[in-house]
Amino acid sequence: MKTLVINCGSSSLKYQLIDMSTEECMVQGLVERIGIEGSVLTQKVEGKDKYVINTEIKNHKDAIKLVLEALIDPVHGVIKSMDEISAVGHRVVHGGEKYSDSVLINDKVLQSIKDCIVLAPLHNPPNIIGIEACKELMPNTPMVAVFDTAFHQTMPKHSYICPLPYDLYEKYGIRKYGFHGTSHKYVSNKVAEVMGKDLKDLKIVTCHLGNGCSLAAVKNGKSVDTSMGFTPLAGVMMGTRSGSIDPSVISFLIEQHGYTIEEVDELLNKKSGVLGISGVSSDFRDVLAAGEAGNERAKLALEIFYYKVRTQIAAYAGAMGGIDVIVFTAGIGENSSITRKEILKGLEFFGLELNEENNEIRGKIQEISTEDSRVKVYVVPTNEELMIARDTAKLVK
Ligand code: ADP
């Protein structure tokens, strides 16, 4: 069985075709600048040259058409016909309170994903466009929606209810939903497997540190708390997002300094975080380099980032009554040994000891705590696509 995994953004589309008999990724690709001048599809197959198509891609339907053509291309493709694709798994950002697991897509499900647009106005619309385009082009292929929010639906009320008038939750659905759920689920499952332990016996803190950053407290295999909230703006500081701040800053900027709501929204989402403090870049590599070169604001941005993640980890010890394992994943978490080291500094009182040599190893699952460390620490490369493909295959069977 071959499963196509689609992750549609507003002007981009990432895809992978996964052979479920081996769980191997046969091909991965990216379509960029959909609907914008300079559209391009780039496809990579192990052992073959990179396949690049520069052509006008007006919309997501055109993009998916081109993806299917690239997949069956006699030279650069990996399958003979579209019929070899048994199912399509779509990443969907927001499933609201309705979905605590992945689901086979039918008209009713599609409508409920549309109903969640109010909660994720930037993310759910492109996800829906991707589903609708696939439905048109591959009407007989079953499709599954895998939600970023689903894994966190196990959070207890004391984690997810905001301390606001309760009727805002009842009337408008204002609560913590949490995101990156597919990644937190994947790495928490994987670390238990690697440790040879039952998930049910572990208290895990998963740290997904990429452009967007979130942590989750995973107790007995269930998410009991996570740092992102009603939207992916909350929690720890990120590349361009502020993370949680005193909400009064917003009315202060509007009332005292004439900002508009749109400007504040842009400021918090696109101009804050590591970029906002360093003034250098939102890309962590650039900020690390600037910090090393002596840039004081870059150093400060890094210090704050480490501090926010460190204190969030410590908070989850309180949430779970202790920590057995800490897992680092995503672009920064998987690749930056200095970041992991700095975050963990100060957490030694938990009985945590870093194995500095192992912390330098990259590109694979790695235990980076010492043998004697009571709290174990692992780097686990995330694989959201595989998780989506697994859920898709399970539901289609
Ligand atoms: P996304 O959330 O968009 O999927 P990624 O998980 O790919 O993002 O993470 C992107 C971030 O990872 C960027 O800030 C990038 O600088 C950072 N990153 C990638 N490689 C390294 C590295 N070797 N050292 C430090 N940061 C890195």
Describe what this molecule looks like in 3D.
By secondary structure, the chain is an alpha/beta fold. The chain folds into two domains: 2-147, 2-Layer Sandwich (Nucleotidyltransferase, domain 5), CATH 3.30.420.40; 197-384, ATPase, nucleotide binding domain (Nucleotidyltransferase, domain 5). The chain has 15 helices and 14 strands. The protein has an eight-stranded mixed beta sheet with strand order 5-4-3-2-1-6-8-7, with helices on both faces. Helix 1 (60-72) packs across helix 3 (124-137), helix 10 (284-292) crosses helix 11 (296-320) and helix 11 crosses helix 13 (337-344). The longest helix has 25 residues, at 296-320. Bound molecules: adenosine-5'-diphosphate (ADP). Adenosine-5'-diphosphate (ADP) binds next to helix 10 and helix 12. It comes from Clostridium saudiense. ATP binds at residues 14, 208-212, 283-285, 331-335. Catalyzes the formation of acetyl phosphate from acetate and ATP. Can also catalyze the reverse reaction. Mg(2+) binds at residues 7, 384.
